[in-house]
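Database export, one record per block. Field names are fixed; values are copied verbatim from the stored entry.
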Amino acid sequence: MRKLDEIFSTYDDIPEIYKMEKPFIQTEYLVNGELKIWKGEFNKVYSPIYVKNGEKLDNYIGEYPILTEREALVALESASKAFDNGNGEWAKMKVEQRIECLKKFTLLMSKERDLIVKLLMWEIGKSLNDSQKEFDRTITYIYDTIEALKNLDRAASRFSISQDIIAQIRRAPLGVTLCMGPFNYPLNETFTTLIPALIMGNTIIFKPPKLGVLLHQPLLEAFQQSFPAGVVNTIYGSGEKVVTPIMQSEKTNVLAFIGSSRVANILKKEHPKPNRLKTVLGLDAKNPAIILEDADLNLTVRECMLGSLSFNGQRCTALKIIFVQKQIAEKFIEKLVASIEKMEIGLPWDKNVAITPLPEKNKPAYLQSLIDDAVSKGAKLENSNGGKNYYSLYFPAILSNVDRSMKVYHEEQFGPIIPIVTYKEISEPLNYVIESNYGQQASLFGKNTDKIAKLVDVLVNQVCRVNVNSQCQRGPDNFPFTGRKDSAEQTLSISDALRVFSIRTLVAAKETDENKIIIRDILKEDKSNFLNTDFIL
């Protein structure tokens, strides 16, 4: 393994294409179709990537506006005015017209790929390969969402007749939507709520995550040019100062939030009319892997390593605890240690890098506290390099002999620690899943179809995805993505998200000759954007 204190390089050693030539100072924010220049306080952005400057290590890379309650309420008023109780231009616009606006945005967004990828690396330490994947996957997601909406609208273009009632059933927007994404996928995860909410006719107030703010700046002009004034508005700063006043207003109809259940619960309680507020939440998870005694160890080790450590384990879908049958535990741990010790730790643009700097300032100290607590209660640190750290660099740690007395057994570490629990009876990992506050996913590894079938039948009633001989993951994006218990509210897939951010609405009339004439005239003269039989090609 490379010496950690030798990984951070001088500015001259950084490849030219990835250099931050000067601090990235964001001065503008988008509200009511205008890019307003902020002249107040700014928040300094510090990268997890340090640059050697003589005897010092520098990591300052930019700044963004710290807005106040006043600006937040202006953004809310802008979104509310643009929606206008459903009478706004965007809300009433034909689906085909909204699609054209989104296509224009996507084209403009594609031109900013290199800059956004660079900012992803510098702001959150994501590898070059993963940063490129996140951007490209987001573009694909947008186009797939467009196609899904076409199919949804095509199915709604016909009329239904039942019990002498003529009706057309379509989907209508919900209103003003506050979108807040996570730092680990600040572009992709944010857009998995923002894009479907937007294309369904809602107006948006968008607050970037606490880390990964600057990378959204290159898209402000694209939003401005692609959508009517007030349809997309951005806010920055302290959640207490800018989010709380928005949530305390009756004008907020939807909260789309990906983060911790603790914060989500605080935000929901702020709304004065909870029955009016719709929440779309992606929250905590502590996904387990359950390894049976007949598992293919080579495959299992590969999937568990990727599942636990992709982007340093900073994924809600990461494998965060591993249960391995006692008879094969020693061999599994031996193979896992050997694989992880070969992992490359370095900077995001380094070739074959697997472990990159952690973006959260206090994360190394927190991870070390989990290790210290576990070891003091009988756990064993299995890999010699495990837990070695230097500033934001942290080498993965494998902990064996983990049990319920330890914090790492219960807490979502959201980082490169792999807790391993050895079990004798299959009831032990099953009870863990049943007793857990979380219910997102689980992974099963084994070959015995009788055992796997029985476990699947139990687990599907506790978690929302069971992965057989593979790591937990979100994709493909057309698959449902959700969770039970404290892990999620609502389901996000490409088609599900369109339904989540809209509501079935219908126009109905008794099947009389007069009503038939009225409906035919509206359709023939194309008088209504809602009541129509247009078929989008």
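Remark 1: The mean pLDDT is 97.
Remark 2: The CA atoms of residues 312 and 416 lie 5 Å apart.
End of record.
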